[in-house]
Amino acid sequence: MSSDAAPDIAEEFTAPKQGRKGDGGTYLVVADDSEEFATALRYACFAAKSHRGRLGILHIIEDQDFQHWGTVEGRIKKELREKAEQYLWTIAKTANDLNGTIPSLYVAEGEPGEALTKTIDADNHIVQLILGGKSGSAPGPLVSFCIGKGLERMKVPVVVVPSHIKEFS
Known about the structure:
Number of helices: 5
Radius of gyration: 18 Å
Strand content: 15-25%
Low-confidence stretches: none
CATH superfamily: HUPs
Structural class: alpha/beta
CATH architecture: 3-Layer(aba) Sandwich
Distance between the termini: 48 Å
CATH class: Alpha Beta
Shape: globular
Largest sheet: 5 strands, parallel
Strand order of the largest sheet: 3-2-1-4-5
Number of domains: 1
Number of strands: 5
Helix content: 25-40%
CATH topology: Rossmann fold
């Protein structure tokens, strides 16, 4: 094969997202009440620590149907946001116990796949998305989105951690 036939990889290569100078970027995990979240959180803490990065924890508040409730909508959204923030601080304490750092916390509203991609697009420090996979069953809706129709929209690598891996379960 001649050298002129080889593609110029340097021209096609897009530099990966960079974290802040001196660190390995943000490893994002999506917090929810699923069994597999605990495994994903432990792995994300490990990955962030071993790459000198930081942990990011996202909680998504799914759209509610409040269209006809007028001012009640604002109060309910505020309440949901406060609950999400309290939940994130609880998870942040666990993460701090696991890797000794204070994570970045994110709250997003909307359809989960869309909210996730918007969060990743908005933060250039995010270098990897870590999700938990449940062994022996179909993947959850967010994992299905990220490895299916949403994959082309992902700007960072997606890691799905199987729940049966003993080191992280």
